[in-house]
Amino acid sequence: MILKNISYENFRNHRSLTFEPENGINLIYGPNGSGKTSILEGIHYCALTKGFVSANDQQCLTFEAEYFLVNGHFISENDRQLTVKITYKKEKKITVNHSEVKPFSQHIGTIPCITFSPPEISIVNGSPMERRRFIDNSICQTDRKYLDDLLTYRRVLSQRNTLLAQIKEHSEERDNTLSIWSEQLSRIAAAIITKRVRFTEEILQRLYGIYKELSVREEPSILYRCSVGSISKEDKEEILYHRLRQKYKETEKTDIYRAQTSIGPHRDDMLIKMNEKEIGKYASQGQMRTFLIGLKLAQHRYFNEKLGEKPICLLDDIFSELDTKRTEDILALLKTYGQSIITSAEKKTYGGINEISIENMKKEKRL
Questions:
Q1: 1-112+309-367 homologous superfamily
Q2: How confident is the model over 284-310, as pLDDT tens digits?
Q3: 192 and 149 in contact (C-beta within 8 Å)?
């Protein structure tokens, strides 16, 4: 997937700006606060219908503006033209090739992209929710059925939790209603967990390859930690379904007491280790950052192999804290990855890179 051009009106730092990247590696450089990240965020809106810095649309408005507009033109590897227009004025509207998209989830996966930003280190050392979000965002861009299942699971989970609260508050006699919701939740949860386990093992294999190409002499490992106990890719979805049903029966009293569902995909985690030690507890900042970069590059390969389409790489401040050798190794990989858009506070001169000064870009627009 290639971004041909994108324009911004009243979007974060930019009253009016047009960006036309080249097909390979594009490096946008300039001082902090000049709007480099905002350019990436607008592209992310076109791909995933929201920003990666903030999911709050209103926060993307330029100061005192009443609306923002982002308009991107893309071309796929089979020459399919895509024009994505995001408008926001009290509510968001998305059109693709002049047709409105509703719900927004229908657009996910149309323009595959991967991101890197320093706050995403929370995938490595943050809460389980951050790792679940990484897994879900990855699979959703390659599997429409998974996205549908995830949305259904959240709806059924909410309904089950509401019923649990009602039973607790009113001491209602439990009829078969709770068991019906538990059965539905078990069925959808089994499908979700099965795909998450498969993804975890597939991304790890690609991560091994990335570490080898970057000459990183460390042994990463990723294990899906399921709230119903140990599972592997050999476990069939039907078997997992029955295990979940049994677990929901066993935890029913506790769930009523807490008025929330205590097990399921919303409670699972991804255990990350480096040299057999938990990375979030024992690794250095450099090791965690290298792991995150490797994970994102592995995600790119996963998308490319699943979709037959190279995703756009949006890499915010990726080179800070990296030495020259590691930077050169990553750039060598990115040259084979299709289109990358990178931000940096400083200009970096490497062969085969399109260097763009954001200050010059804004001056040209004013002229």
A1: P-loop containing nucleotide triphosphate hydrolases (3.40.50.300)
A2: 888 888 899 999 999 999 999 999 999
A3: yes
CA–CA distance, 358 with 343 (Å, rounded to integer) = 10
Structure tokens belonging to residue 94: 């998305």
| Cα angle 93, 52, 109; round to 5 | 65
> Could you tell me which residues are beta bridge partners of residue 352?
none
Report whether 116 contacts 314 (CB < 8 A): yes
Is residue 355 within 8 A of residue 347, CB to CB? The reply is yes
3-state helix, strand, coil in the chain (%, to 5): 50, 20, 30
Query: Does the structure show a pLDDT above 60 at 257?
Result: yes
Q: Is the dihedral of CA 26, 32, 35, 41 positive or negative?
A: positive
Q: Which residue has the tokens 């099965």?
A: 194
Tell whether omega for the bond before 103 is within 30 degrees of 0, i.e. cis.
yes
The amino acid occupying position 182 is S
Report the distance separating Cα 181 and Cα 161, nearest Å: 10
From CA 180, how far away is CA 175, in angstroms rounded?
10
Q: Where are the domains of the chain?
A: 1-112+309-367
High-pLDDT (> 70) share of the chain, %: 96
Asked if pLDDT for residue 274 goes beyond 60, the answer is: yes
Q: What pLDDT score does 367 carry?
A: 47
User: Rounded CA gap, 262 and 228, in Å?
Assistant: 10
Give, in degrees to the nearest 5, the angle at Cα 297 between 294 and 299.
Answer: 110
What does the alpha-carbon distance between residue 117 and residue 58 come to, in Å, rounded to a whole number? 21
**Residue 365: per-residue pLDDT:** 60
Contact 354, 339 (CB under 8 A): no
What is the pLDDT, as a whole number, of residue 141? 92
Q: β-pairing, 113-116 with 312-316? A: parallel
- pTM for the model stands at 0.89
